[in-house]
Amino acid sequence: MTDSSNALPSLLDQRLAHLLVRQLKRTPLHPNMFTTLTLLLGVACALCFLRPGTALHDLGALCFMLAVFCDHLDGELARQTGKTSRFGHLYDFVVGGLNYAMLFASIGIGLAKLHGGWTVALGVAAALCNPFIMYMRVRMDNTFGLEATEHPSFGWFNLEDFIYAIGPLTWIWGAVYFFVPFAFGTLAYMVWTIVEYRRWFGQATA
Question: N or C: which end of the chain has fewer CB within 10 A?
């Protein structure tokens, strides 16, 4: 019988996280430690983007990419060691929502001096989407399980993986070239989440 905790995930970043955690699962590390590290990287990212300067924005983009990858480590460690808990699962959802909210708010504020106040409005709008997205996804997860919150996949990647573009776009062209399409993308993602939320709960009451 195959141990599902040792099966390689199909998505590339999850596969890398799985292979790394194989080397760590016999250590005293706990999944919530990685969740906290994800939060700290998100805070560091926001602090970088709040201040003007290409080098700081480049560092902020790197911090967020690391936070996204680190977000997979807690789940992988929990699966491979059996150190799962309801608190840890909810903590992971909350940290993810906070990190995305801080990302867009901080970039919007940080770009305002150079591009004008519209970046603040767009950043705050995208940031405020995340608590609603998080609430709906937590409810869907609690009621229907992980299947209800899975993102569409494309080979080794899924919809969420597009966020890794924050690095190349920021490093090559500047933060605004990431910020504008992805902030509007967050608004669209909230609409998609609302549609999925209504679909799942509609099926349950039909």
Answer: N
